Amino acid sequence: MDPTNAEGYYGRAIAYASKGDYDVAIGDFSETIRLNPRKYKAYLNRGRAYLEQEKVDQAINDLSEAIHLAPNDPLAYIYRSAAYNCKADYPRAIADATQAIEFDHERAAAYSNRARGYTEIGKVKEALQDYTRALELDPKCTESRVYLACLRYGTGDHDIAMKDLNEVIRLDPHCSLAFYWRGKAYIEKGQIPQAISDVTEAIRLNPKYTAAYLTRSMMYGTQKDYDYAIADATEAIRILPHDASGYLQRATIYAAKRDYQGVITDTTRAIEFAPKCKEAYSARGWAYAVLGRLDEAIRDYTIVTELDAKCKDVYVSRANLFYRKGEYAKGIADCNAVLRLDPKNAQAYCLRGCFHQGCGATDLAITDCTEAIKLAPTRFQAYYIRGTAFYKKDNYDKSVADYTEAIRLNVKFAEAYYGRGCAYRKKGEIGKAEEDFSKAKKLGYLSLGI
């Protein structure tokens, strides 16, 4: 071949790409571009080849150059829309797909790409319309049919969705996507063995299907098959070593195994690749807290609150750590933050009551615990804290009543037995006191020397 013939390289690149030999194809496309930098189709098809290799940033660069050289070609917008979907940049994916439709409203892929973007941002009605249009234009597009079925499942049309997925698999028994999503549908129905079977078939058909490995890992984890769960998450990491999802899933399994250092190691790796992943910080903070590394846990929880100021559970978790450190004012501030977001949060009232009691504000403790009991009458901790506050106010009858209710709700609550024993002793009912002290001791409450 003439080494100066750009068209020769281009034609050979197209042939290699059609065979799936993308590395060689990219080399020839690059040589075409070197010889003819204005040939937009070389950028277009090299970008498509990069997309097939999941080299999304390189794909976007090439497709953007193709658009610059040929701004009216819908294909470049379609491929770049797909690339933006891969990067979870859904507004840009939707914009590119819409531009492609304006140039050519008969392109099924443009509607399919836009439907995916709409799905991810919660515009279900628009997504359903676009997937339906895509199938009108290309009835054999299994991807659109699968995702349409998934949307129907999400809107409650379970039987129709399952029927659609079964039909896709009947027509194309090699469609890994259909097996994967039918497996997800089985998960929603609580049919885990069938779900594992389908997701396993998806992996057999597509051994690099990272989402399938992660989903199967999750299912194995729920069944406490931790070795299999870790193996699947590890395989997902091997395929996409710079994606946080695999590390997060494996950290979840390590948490179930109580391998707290494993959680810390994997969430730290996840944070390297996704510095704004609040789930990773939250999980690592939890592991630090279990290990007694309170300052590190508080640091991670604080980052979560900076990333998401409405994360109620993290404020509660951090407040508990402040209680362990004796930093009651900070704990009260966290409880206040929860109550601003959720004024009927019984846990926050109960915890704030505990902090008030620690500060010696027994009346405030009683008020908060009374509100917690009103909102959640079975919250035994609130009765215990209020019982202790009444004890400190020398109101032993009310103290006994609250401790008794705490014990009724949790018969193994050693602290409540001890507290009630103290109240009985103050009332002069020594026999009852000794009986409660004995029960507290049998339940392991030894630290007070009873």
Structure class: mainly alpha
- In the predicted model, the low-confidence regions spanning at least 5 consecutive residues are none
Q: How would you spell out the order of helices and strands?
A: HHHHHHHHHHHHHHHHHHHHHHHHHH
Task: Tally the beta strands.
Answer: 0
DSSP strand content? under 5%
Average pLDDT taken over every residue: 94
Outline = elongated
Q: Over the alpha carbons, how many angstroms does the gyration radius reach? A: 30 Å
Fraction of residues in H or I helices: over 70%
The tally of helices reads 26
Question: What gap, in angstroms, lies between the N and C termini?
Answer: 94 Å
**Largest sheet: number of strands, sense, barrel closure:** none
What can you tell me about this protein's structure?
The protein has 450 residues and is an all-alpha fold. 78% of the residues lie in helices and 0% in strands. The protein is elongated, with a radius of gyration of 30 Å. The N and C termini lie far apart (94 Å). The model has no long low-confidence stretch (mean pLDDT 94).
Write out key terms for the chains shown.
450 residues; mainly alpha
Spell out the blueprint of helices and strands.
Elements: H1 6-18, H2 22-35, H3 40-52, H4 56-69, H5 74-86, H6 90-103, H7 108-120, H8 124-137, H9 142-154, H10 158-171, H11 176-188, H12 192-205, H13 210-222, H14 226-239, H15 244-256, H16 260-273, H17 278-290, H18 294-307, H19 312-325, H20 328-341, H21 346-358, H22 362-375, H23 380-392, H24 396-409, H25 414-427, H26 430-442
Helix pairs in contact: 1-2, 2-3, 3-4, 3-5, 4-5, 5-6, 5-7, 6-7, 7-8, 8-9, 9-10, 9-11, 10-11, 11-12, 12-13, 13-14, 13-15, 14-15, 15-16, 15-17, 16-17, 17-18, 18-19, 19-20, 19-21, 20-21, 21-22, 21-23, 22-23, 23-24, 23-25, 24-25, 25-26
